[in-house]
Amino acid sequence: MKHLAALNKYFMANKWRLILGLLFTAISIVFSVFQPIMVRQIFDLLSLNLDEYRLLSDTSLKGAFRADFSRILAFYGVSILAFALLSGFFLFLQRQTLIVMSRHIEFDLKNEIYQHYQKMDLNFFKMHRTGDLMSRITEDVSRVRMYAGPAIMYASRTLLLIVIVVYLMLEVNPLLTLYTLSPLPVLALMIYYVNKIIHRKSEKIQAELSNITSIAQESYSGIRVIKSYVQEDASGRHFEDASEAYKQSSISLAKTDALFQPAMALMIGVSVILTIFIGGFQVIAGNITVGNLAEFVIYVNMLMFPFLSIGLVATMTQRAAASQQRINEFLKITPEIKDEPAAKTVQLEGGIHLQGVTFTYPHTGITALKEVNLQVQPGQKVAVIGRTGSGKSTLAQLLIRMYDPQEGKVMLDTHDVRYMHLEQLRSQISYVPQDVFLFSDSIANNIRFGDPAASLQAVQQAARQASVEKDILGFSDGFDTAIGERGVTLSGGQKQRISIARALIKNPDIMIFDDCLSAVDARTEKEIIGNLYAYLKNKTAVIITHRIFSLFEFDKIIVLDEGRIVEEGTHDELLSLNGYYAELYARQQSGDEESITE
Ligand SMILES: Nc1ncnc2c1ncn2[C@@H]1O[C@H](COP(=O)(O)OP(=O)(O)OP(=O)(O)O)[C@@H](O)[C@H]1O
């Protein structure tokens, strides 16, 4: 329960809704208890006057009696209806305040969690499964909402109704009250336990459902592999097995559900029978009137749902507490990469200086960079080459401070990146990642992601510089073409070029390209490099590549091997070293010649 205290700030923010909601609950209950009282009065009136009526021999007197009685009955009928309407109206207002409050809390909590996710560093995302992160912002928040709205609503209603109704019942006859209420706690306990069973089974069903969904999802996206390896049957069987497990669990839940309703009806029935049976004797003994008996039967029915909801509220609160605990644990995590108190806002000129940088990925223990020293002056172009896994991408990640090195310093100009404002640092560097990621949005908006205020002309120019404009204009909707599941399917090379255009439109002084031309053909590559050459004229650029761009005159080329810089210099200097670079160059030259002679 203590975990739910974290919600107090939200209740405070919604205090008027909460106070009004509780007030409406009380008013609605007060109006609802008039009904049994009036029914009692009608019954008592009837039983008192019926004998007298039967003894009347004069038909005109009988007629007058009936007319009087009809008026009384009509009055009671209209009154009962009016009270029921008033009670219903306040019930409506109660839901309008308390349930609306819970929706506001849900909205704020979701936003708080989402904002917190945004602050987390990459390491956090590596250490948590996506499904787990998703379930906190969806399922866990939904469960907390059930507490913040329905549970509070039912609990307040239950408490008030039980207090008022039990008081009225005790006023009539304490012994009958005791007998009538005796099955109700059993009912509450039963609901609580059955609910737990239902919850456990529902969780299992939920897990099986998500398993089925991911199997289906995977086979849709991998359909080409499935078909080309003729694995349709195996894939179908795999799905059938998962579906079978889901079916069995659903049937098991249906059985529990099927038992639940009749068991509840039995308990209610027992209470009503006890009321009539014991109450009947009390009427005969003259302790209560027939009206009291009728009143009691209504009270019992009125108390059913509140007692039933004790069990519901208990399980809702328990689940919400567990969910809020998970949310609190997550909100407590502080990102390792964050603004230091002494963080400065600086305007970068473009110098990059790495001093003895050693970096080990925290969650795998892989040392990706070892004692790396690098000096890049503003405006210089640097190529980073090396075998796969040699640490090239890691170097790029450290420059935009996705991670901090365990040893050494990453400096931009004369500033340690650790002491720069993170947002400001990243806004001054454009980074084209190796794994392209495009959002399900139009092509224009994907490019505009680099500069949300950019005009369409700027978007078109960036696309032209990234050599993708022609491709885009080839789509029927041009720059408005939607990308993603319901949009066009772009080729790997087109995606890479849109991702480059996104980086170009940002137009900062430092650019990092991480192997972002791997999926484009040699001619397009040449075209892009030609465009980039002019674009990067006064910018510092770090270009990570597997291929040597002979067109590009780099000020410096570094070769990484197992996290260390093993070669460093200009093209000519590296060729004379006769090392990895010279070998790669020779291989590439002969490959190019082969493809030319072919
Ligand atoms: N997020 C990560 N978590 C843990 N280890 C990682 C992570 N990224 C890379 N590594 C490891 O760090 C080492 C260097 O990887 P890195 O991606 O920097 O190499 P790379 O030179 O860019 O390779 P490639 O050319 O294949 O992209 C590798 O051994 C890799 O397995």
Automatic annotation (TrEMBL):
Membrane topology: Multi-pass membrane protein
Subcellular location: Cell membrane
Domain ABC transporter, first and last residues per copy: 352-587
Keywords attached to this entry: ATP-binding, Membrane, Nucleotide-binding, Transmembrane, Transmembrane helix
InterPro entries assigned to the protein according to its UniProt record, in alphabetical order: AAA+_ATPase (IPR003593), ABC1_TM_dom (IPR011527), ABC1_TM_sf (IPR036640), ABC_transporter-like_ATP-bd (IPR003439), ABC_transporter-like_CS (IPR017871), P-loop_NTPase (IPR027417), Type_1_exporter (IPR039421)
All copies of domain ABC transmembrane type-1, residue ranges: 19-319
Principal cellular location given in the protein's record: membrane
Molecular function via GO: ATP binding
UniProt xrefs under Pfam families: ABC_membrane, ABC_tran
Membrane spanning residue stretches: 18-38, 73-93, 151-170, 176-194, 263-284, 296-316
Record bears the keyword Coiled coil: no
PANTHER family: ATP-BINDING CASSETTE SUB-FAMILY B MEMBER 10, MITOCHONDRIAL, ATP-DEPENDENT PERMEASE MDL1, MITOCHONDRIAL
The protein's name: ABC transporter ATP-binding protein
